[in-house]
Write a structure and sequence with these properties.
Length: about 100
């Protein structure tokens, strides 16, 4: 696990950070499963930290969306990130819309 985490961080920092890179990082982190407990919570915290660094609001993954979230993560294990992109982008758009509604 330590080598996988080192490899993940080396990969993540090897190119400029984009939303897609954040999503892939999240999926790869979950697939490494570095902790006995709290992997999903930790990955969501890291995801939100990185989104905030890019100027986006944090996202929330609702309990009602967990099945879709887990299915997207499952597909990412095999290198298919399309469902993860769709899921996270919809969360980001929802979060942006919520923030904009408060601005009006």
């Amino acid at each position: 696990i330590p080598q996988e985490m080192n490899d993940l961080l080396a990969w993540y920092t090897s190119e400029p950070v984009t939303i897609n890179r954040i999503i892939e990082f999240t999926c790869k982190f979950i697939n490494i499963h570095p902790f006995i407990d709290g992997n999903s919570r930790t990955s969501r915290l890291l995801t939100n930290l990185e989104l905030l660094k890019l100027g986006y609001p944090p996202i929330t993954i609702l309990a009602t969306d967990r099945l879709e979230y887990y299915q997207a993560l499952d597909k990412s294990y095999y290198g298919d990130y399309e469902e993860a992109y769709d899921f996270f982008y919809s969360c980001i758009i929802e979060s942006l819309n919520e923030y904009l509604s408060f601005a009006h």
